[in-house]
What we know:
Number of strands: 4
Number of helices: 8
Helix content: over 70%
Amino acid sequence: MMFNFLKYEFKRSRKFNLFFFFLSLIITVLFAIVLWNVLKNTSYDIDISSVFESAFVFMIFVVLSINLLYFLRRYRNDIFSKSAYLTFTLDISTNKLFLAKMITALIVTLINEIIFTVIFSFMNFFMNRRFNIDNLLTKIGMGNFIRLFLYSILILSIFWLMAYALLTLAISLTRVKFFRRYYDFVSIVLFVVIFTLILALLRYVYVRLPYMIDFEDFAVRYVRQINGFDLSMLYMNLDGKIIGMNIYDLFISIFTIVISFVANIYVVEYKIDL
C-alpha cells in the first residue's frame, strides 16, 4: 500500500515540477538578460564569475525554500483540512503515510534543484562562450565539479529534511491545546528558533570536535587543520578537494530528523482529534 501511495504522491507533484521548470527557465533568462546588458554597457571591472556563483547559491536557497513551503502547505492540507479524513481512510499506517510524504517531498525537491542547476548551467555556458568568463567548472575541472555538486546535494538534503521534519511537527502542534488554547504562530516561530539553534550547534561542533568520516575509506579521523565552511559539515584538504564529513554533525542531523519524525507521529495519533 505504501508503494501505491508513493506513486500517488509523485503523480500529484507533476504539475508542481512543470511549474518549477518554467519558473526556473524564466528566472534564468531574466538573469541572463540583465547580466548581458550589464556586460555590454558597463566599463567597470566586474568579477563575473563571482556574480554567477553568488547568484547560483542564492537561487538554490530560493529553490529549496519554495519547495519547502509547497510541501508544508500540502502536508497541512492533507492532514488537517476538512477533506483530510480521506487521507486516513487509506489502508496505510500513520508512520508509513508520513514517511511516504517525506520521501516524496525530498525527491521532488532534488529533482527541482537539478532542473534549476541544469538550466542555470546552460546559461552559464552560453555566457562563458560569449564573454569568455572564467567560471567554476573551468577552474576546478569536470570531475571535481561533479563531486562538489553531489556532496552539496547530500548536505542540502540533510538540512532540508531537518527543516521539513521540524516544521511539520510544528504544524501538527498548532492543533494541540496547551493550557486550553491553540498557539499557531508561537509553535511555528518556536521551531524556527530551534532550527536556528541546531545550526549554531552544528557550527560549534564542526570547529570544536573536528572528527570526520573519510570519504576514501570511511574511517573516522581527527582533522588537525580545518579547511572548509562550518555549516557545510565538510572538510577539504589544502588543494580544496573534499575529503570527509564531520561525524558528530551527521549524527546530530540524523537524530533531529528521526526524533522530529517520531514525535510528529505521536502527536497526530494520540494528541489530536482528527
